[in-house]
Amino acid sequence: MKVNTTNPLRLTSLNHISLVCGSVDQSVSFYRDFLGFVPIRRPSSFDFDGAWLFGHGVGIHFIQSEDPPKIEKKEAINPKDNHISFQCESMGAVENKLKDMGIEYMRALVEEGGIQVNQLFFHDPDGFMIEICNCDNLPVVPIASEMARASSLVNLHSIQASPAQNINHVVHH
Fold first, then answer.
1. Domain membership of residue 23 as a residue range
2. Which residues are catalytic?
3. Cβ-count burial of 145 within 10 angstroms (0-12 exposed, 13-18 middle, 19+ buried)?
4. CATH number at residue 18
5. Contact between residue 86 and residue 136 where contact means Cβ atoms under 8 Å apart
6. How many domains does the structure of the chain reveal?
């Protein structure tokens, strides 16, 4: 019996992110008009207010807060806070749009081995952090020690004999 240690749950992709919001209408407008998401049909069996959107390969599900004033809106932009990140084609276009809309944002730069990644961080209407970046500039490189640890359930002799068979192929877009 072959054990899949790199994907034990056999996950295929990220399906959606669910966010509790103070105003479903405000959140839908922001994610639709600024981030380019498209509203999609939501099951009618739900007995609470919300909305579903889809774009960029992922769904965003909004759930109306039962107590909107208790949603803690973060004022300070902190790149180390929880956030979702989107890849973009033009950092300049994103920054211009943020300026045009009067949205406060923070720039960051990551440098690794001569490669630069630009990042823009800002909040949605409920204070949830969003990052826009050109992160695909950085290659995805598995850490050898992590691969060894992940393969601990597999016969080590088969790893040494054929290491390429035990590493998932990473595709760069």
1. 14-66
2. 131
3. exposed
4. 3.10.180.10
5. no
6. 1
